[in-house]
Design goal:
The chain is α+β, with helices and mostly antiparallel strands. The protein has one helix and three strands. Helix content is 24%, strand content 18%.
Length: 102
């Protein structure tokens, strides 16, 4: 009889361990976490821009219409929040910063 009680207690304890670990494993990673916008207010000439701004798909093709000077070799104008930044494509260095006039 004592063996049956002991066995029942062990089975009960083991089931608690399985249930609690299953509950922890079911906790999904939060998919709603969003990256914060780039804080361009702190970026200045000489700083390194985020890597995404050295990509050609971020380059402003109409820089002349926006009143920006001709980009130097291996550099491009990009828009970062409320500023235009001339970014060197080889190392991400910011060469110029211009506010967007509205």
């Amino acid at each position: 009889m004592a063996d049956q009680k002991l066995m029942a207690i062990l089975v009960l304890l083991a089931s608690f361990g399985v249930v609690s670990s299953m509950a922890l494993a079911d906790d999904p990673v939060q998919a709603s976490i969003q990256a914060s916008p780039i804080n361009a207010r702190n970026l200045k000439v000489g700083d390194r821009a985020p890597d995404s701004y050295t990509s050609s798909n971020k380059a402003l093709a109409d820089w002349k219409k926006r009143g920006l000077k001709t980009p130097q070799s291996q550099s491009q104008w990009v828009q970062v929040n409320d500023k235009y930044m001339l970014v060197q494509t080889t190392n991400g260095q910011i060469l110029a910063v211009m506010p967007i006039e509205r």
